[in-house]
Design brief:
- The strands form two sheets. Strands 1, 2, 3, 4, 5, 6, 7, 8 and 11 form a nine-stranded mixed sheet that branches. A two-stranded antiparallel ribbon has the order 9-10.
- The protein is an alpha/beta fold.
Length: about 270
């Protein structure tokens, strides 16, 4: 049986995909689930020998679980299309897996890049994510304790876990336009989560608290107390915009209560990564 499968979901990722796939060419299998790309995503995937599956967008957790189900290896590495392995991480995984590791799942640190700067503080590093796991021990949010959420999906697993020593590089937002578009999409999805939880900010006090006070507290906590101030102009912009995203999320949830309920079918965000 193959030792390592890489599972990726995509939609219009030609800008990122070649870099990501080039960092995992050592894997025995690359499984890619695409939700309607109109650019060169599929051609790039095929050039790296990936097994490509087309599937209508069903939400982050559902798409990622489907990708995992198509994998045939003992171990699975789940990646977003805008991530790449550092050379050190590649070597560690290549050395680790043939030894029959004692842990069933491994967390990997992420270096989040904003405007091409590594954001080291304010809660953005080490940003460890569970990404490498034994087949059949993990999935995204499909347990009695987690709903299949439209955004910020959570991976759950059974067994012992550990951490790897090296990093993923997350090419998150190379331009301001990327982040502003991300804020708009994710605040809409986040508002749907709030509505599902019954958090509608209908009262005046709740509205003021969630739309105005909470974003300010979020900025103060991350920028000053968690030392985001040390990440330069990029850190300032990121934390300002993140606090704005929090305000937008609650405002959109409140606004939705004044009109028709939001559609239950969630459109595919483009591109499909966190």
């Amino acid at each position: 049986m193959p030792l390592l499968s890489v599972a990726i979901i995509t939609c219009n990722e030609e800008r990122n995909l070649a870099r990501t796939l080039a960092s995992v060419t050592f894997a025995d299998e690359i499984v890619l689930v695409d939700s309607g790309s109109q650019d060169r995503t599929l051609a790039i995937a095929e050039s790296f020998g990936a097994k490509v599956f087309s599937r209508t967008w069903q939400g982050f957790a559902s798409q990622k679980n489907f990708a995992i189900e198509q994998c045939t290896s003992d171990w699975i590495l789940s990646l977003d299309a805008d991530e790449e392995l550092t050379p050190e991480l590649r070597q560690q995984i290549r050395r680790l897996l043939p030894t029959n590791p004692p842990a069933d799942a491994y967390y990997i640190r992420r270096r989040n890049l904003f405007l091409n700067r590594w954001i080291r503080r304010g809660g953005y590093y080490p940003d460890a994510k569970l990404r490498l796991f034994r087949r059949s021990t993990a999935n995204f949010s499909h347990t009695p304790h987690f709903e299949d959420r439209p955004v910020h999906e959570t991976i759950v697993f059974d067994g012992a876990s550990s951490r790897l020593d090296y990093d993923l590089i997350h090419h998150a937002y190379p331009t301001l336009e990327d982040y502003l578009e991300h804020m708009d999409r994710y605040s809409t999805l986040g508002a749907q989560v709030l509505l599902a939880q019954g958090r509608k900010s209908r009262g005046s006090v709740a509205f003021m608290w969630n739309v105005f006070i909470v974003p300010q507290l979020t900025f103060f906590w991350n920028y000053f107390l968690r030392l985001g101030i040390l990440d330069g102009r990029e850190g300032l912009l990121l934390h300002l915009y993140h606090s704005t995203y929090v305000s937008w999320k609650y405002a959109k949830a409140w606004r939705a209560t004044l009109s028709e309920p939001p559609a239950t079918t969630i459109q595919a965000p483009l591109p499909v990564h966190d």
